[in-house]
Predict the structure.
Amino acid sequence: MKVLVTGVNGYIGAVLGPYLIQRGLVVLGLDTGYYRDGWLYSDDRRLSHTPETLNKDLRDVAEEDLEGCDAVAHLAELSNDPLGQNNPGVTFRINHRGSVSLAEKARAVGIERFVYTSSCSVYGAGTGIFLDESAATNPQTAYAECKTLVERDVGRMAGAGFCPVFLRNATAYGPSPRMRFDIVLNDLAALAWTTRRIAMVSDGSPWRPLVHIEDICEAIYLSLVAPADAVRGKVFNVGQNSENYRVRDIARIVAEEFPGCEVTVGEVTGDNRSYRVSFDRIHRELPGFVCRHTARDGARQLHEIFKRIQMTPETYRYRAFTRLAQLKYLQDTRQIDDELFWC
Ligand SMILES: NC(=O)c1ccc[n+]([C@@H]2O[C@H](COP(=O)([O-])OP(=O)(O)OC[C@H]3O[C@@H](n4cnc5c(N)ncnc54)[C@H](O)[C@@H]3O)[C@@H](O)[C@H]2O)c1
């Protein structure tokens, strides 16, 4: 199977490309390279399996780019809430229109399997009860709204010759050479390493579901190779029930893996938005899927890497490891324009 992986130079993509190659798939990457300034470590042996990559914007993809591929794993989007809020118009044009158009082109050239990385953020503000895939979505940001729109529009295309699969990932954590320090566990781990202190401004009571980056890769791999009838048009929450954590518990787990790190908890705030997600369906219906990692494993792996590369506070705060800061830098230095195209 030859699979086009969009967003292959991002946090998840940089791990996913080698992961799929090692499982015997032929991978063609596609990425515009917004975060290519950031590369945390290079001694991972899996990196010898880095795929050939088209350096291209999602919005410029042509049907010819997809020819010869049997499947698409689509990750290339503006990947977090603040990015989306900053410029909702561009977010809709990339994340919604760009993604739907990619799916239309894939279908037009006869590609059947289309795996889309959605997000548990589509559930928005919850009340702490477990939400499964049948729960109403309640997107709070342009980013989350685009995820629901892509699920809706690409979901309508499901049929005999087209098999889209929608993976609503929990918040990822764990090492990737193309690191992100703007997601909760990675951020807390870097804080613990560089300052030995995690000071929470709130009481940390809200629930957050987490998932290890390699468990996301496994879910994508299995969604690519599963029999079409098992997955066509389906939505899966990606994670495991026991990986729903309160934010203060994430902080505590991280601190335990970084000896000498102190955690302080702040006041109860008015903002108690909180959601827990049920991951029963993916374990029941995606053949072969199990989550292999826990937040504690991720914190331990990050500790080992920070120690090995002697990570400095400057590296932690480097713009290219924080999505919003890197795009702002590229705009301020006129490397990309208002539509986020390279100048
Ligand atoms: N990381 C998480 O916690 C998480 C959770 C749920 C869902 N997701 C989804 O998974 C996907 C990957 O997330 P990530 O954390 O690796 O994000 P990331 O920002 O690290 O990677 C996204 C990649 O896509 C590329 N890209 C962005 N816009 C593009 C465009 N217009 N044309 C071509 N390439 C473009 C970027 O250059 C980047 O390399 C995203 O769709 C994200 O919404 C991520």
Notes: The CA atoms of residues 76 and 106 lie 15 Å apart. The radius of gyration is 19 Å. The longest helix spans residues 88-108. The longest strand covers residues 113-119.
